[in-house]
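Async update (no meeting this week)

Hi team, since we skipped the sync, here's where things stand on the single-chain job. The sequence we agreed to prioritize is pasted below, unchanged from the tracker. I ran it this morning and attached the output directly underneath so nobody has to dig for it. Comments welcome in thread, and please keep replies under the output.
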Amino acid sequence: MRSGKYPGIRCKGIVISARCDLAQNKIKYFHCLMALPLEDWFFEVLFNDILEEKKKELFGKIKRYAEENNLDFDSLINMGIDKVEYILTQCVGDNKKVSKDISIWISTWKTIEELSSEKKDRNHKNAYLRNNAEKLVKSKMLHLYNSVYPKFAFVPVKAYSCNSSSVEGLVIDLQDIKQIDMNVKNDILDYKYDFTTYQGDRKEEINKLFFFENESDFVMADDIITSPWIEYILQLFAHSFIRIGVDNAFDYEIREYCNRIMEANT
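Output:
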């Protein structure tokens, strides 16, 4: 399926409408959650999340230095990288260690901005993560597998196929939901959406909902997510859907706070 949030990724549509309503056609529309293949989610969602966290961690260091030198951080940061580098350098004096730190901060900031603004291939992204965020990647993947990654749910391939893997599978965006006409369901079950044999005049309309643009494209009901995984998905969806979004503390902020507590009590 096509997702408005991830337009370039071929997603799965996880049907969450009640089976009885689907079977008896009691509803005009059914609903799907968009699910990304794990590798696509890793490089498109997790990568951007890590970049954002790295940027906030960097800005935390710059903010502390700015406050020590009576500089307004918000005004400073809005001036852009080059002016920030110039102003911070002027405050250094002969302190070589701080001068080196500032050079590292600016270099890191430029790298993050470059990776954020340009479409990098996965080899570039992989190299950055391997060199700069290996521990953070593993930590966030554990969050995903342990069902504590905000707004996402992981479903292993063993939940919907004979593959026994617990680490491969789909990542469901719990806030990316699509409403689909029930007539589409019937056409899918009747195998009408095969690009090479489709005789109708709705190809453009179908292509807005599914990837329906090449001879190899077709749409079908693929697999069934078995119990208790389907109940697990619905539970996480309900929790995510009704939860008020708040900004949680980042890992580095929690670590710094814990260090302060321990240092204060030694």
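Quick observations from my side:
The mean pLDDT is 90.
The longest strand covers residues 169-181.
Reply here if anything looks off.
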